[in-house]
Amino acid sequence: MACRKNVVAIDGPAASGKSTVAALVAERLGATYVNTGNMYRAVTLAALRRFGDAGLSEEDVVGMLGDIELEYTNVGDGAFALKLDGEDVGMEIRSPEVAKFVSKVAAMPAVREWLVKKQRAFADEGTIVMEGRDIGTVVFPDAKRKFFLSASPEVRAKRRLAQAGECVDGATISSVAKEIAERDKRDMERPVSPLKKADDAIAVDTSDMTIDEVVDFIADNVEGGAT
Ligand code: DC
């Protein structure tokens, strides 16, 4: 398969540090950063607003797709702002409520198809760093470089707890670790585009690495590696 030179794919489970790292790698490479998890979260938010948490049937959610507008608006300097029906939903999509339901919505094949089409359109935006669960396996199997980030469950729970607003009040390391483990299980076991390392992705265990070390490792590999 021809190599798509302009795409760096970063995949991995929840709270593995992907977003922080991918944004910094993009900055260093002068590339556009795309967080695909936020797209699944925005669809989930739209569905929760319309149907409530008891009503997220596949039929309802898929039927809703024709009625919503989800755009990444180019705001310059390689930055894109995610808008749902024209509204900036950056904060609301990080809520514990959205986190609880997002892997259910992300398992719906028609939702994935709808979003993957939007994700592939970014290939026209110059160099891109795209992060998610299936970027190296499904969205851009021909990406120039692929990385699969992981970290121990305890480290990931600590990182998630440190991110203000993403956990319910009273959350502990063990309750957050349990929530992350449940989401990973659903993401890994879904029949369509499961969370999985691409055979040709470089595995990076970030448990004992600083953010800067991970960024350097990835950016050096992209800049210095053979094309
Ligand atoms: O990266 P994140 O935790 O914000 O992602 C939220 C959810 O979206 C995650 O539980 C799985 C789903 N997702 C996906 O299925 N495919 C992607 N490419 C990105 C995210």
Total DSSP helices: 9
Given helix and strand content, the structural type is alpha/beta
Computed over alpha carbons, the radius of gyration is: 17 Å
Q: Order of strands side by side in the largest beta sheet?
A: 2-6-1-7-8
* Total count of strands: 8
Show unreliable segments: none
Description:
The protein has helices at 18-29, 36-51, 58-64, 96-106, 109-120, 135-139, 153-162, 173-189, 211-224; strands at 4-11, 32-35, 70-74, 80-84, 87-88, 128-132, 143-150, 202-205. The model has no long low-confidence stretch (mean pLDDT 90). It has a single domain, classed as Rossmann fold (3-Layer(aba) Sandwich). 38% of the residues are buried. The chain has a five-stranded parallel sheet with strand order 2-6-1-7-8. The protein has a three-stranded antiparallel sheet with strand order 3-4-5, with helices on one face. β3 and β4 (80-84) form a beta hairpin. It is α/β, with parallel strands linked by helices and 227 residues long. Bound molecules: 2'-deoxycytidine-5'-monophosphate. 2'-deoxycytidine-5'-monophosphate binds at residues 14, 36-37, 40-41, 102-103, 106, 132-134, 183, 187.
